[in-house]
């Protein structure tokens, strides 16, 4: 069986070389040794490797060999850091911001769940089918980034597309229910996204993807999608803030 790890381990930011690979036929295990010229294997790459290897019917052990961190490597990892201490401090700040963002996302998700749990919606099958089409396409794009295509995935997993769609059905219905609920709240509360909101979102996307605002506009054709996304985000922020207010009121009592 051919396992393509090149998309994951041969990147500009992370340079890793497989220096040893041993396959234990009796155990169906593969032991890979990766040697890095950097000091750390970042969390995203670890997650990508874990997700990719989960599609392969092998028990795989990764051994990561990494050098000691010095000022030169610290600067390679973080251009704003001129020393190991500065690199570690910047890393602590980023991790702190990441944890704060994760906590905020949890609050938002809980607020959304509370809103949708109280909603009763009869979802047409055609709407579910359309959402399933979108989810299968998104899934195909994700695994393609990891060197697989849908047909290969079906061969490895023993599933076919109908089984995958059935597996995704509950999530598709929840997605639709969430979108309809949030849109209804936006309509009721007269929540809209103005030009300033859209411009801020475009600037945010520009920095995130390192492309110009004009290129984003040209790619999208119009800003309707961004306008709706911002509108829905305002609803989520409203739900989260109200949930915080309710919890605070309960504690006061």
Give an account of the 3D structure.
The chain is mainly α. It has a 3-stranded mixed β-sheet with strand order 1-2-3, with no helix packed on it. It has helices at 6-9, 43-54, 71-77, 84-117, 125-144, 150-157, 161-188, 195-209, 213-220, 224-252, and strands at 16-24, 29-36, 59-65. It is 65% helix and 9% strand.
β-strand percent reads: 5-15%
Radius of gyration, whole Å: 23 Å
Question: Share of helix among residues?
Answer: 55-70%
Oligomer: single chain
Strand order of the largest sheet: 1-2-3
Q: Which residues sit in consecutive blocks of at least 5 with pLDDT less than 50? A: 1-15, 37-41
Average pLDDT works out at: 77
Structural class: mainly alpha
Biggest pleated sheet: 3 strands, mixed
- Coarse shape: globular
Number of helices: 10
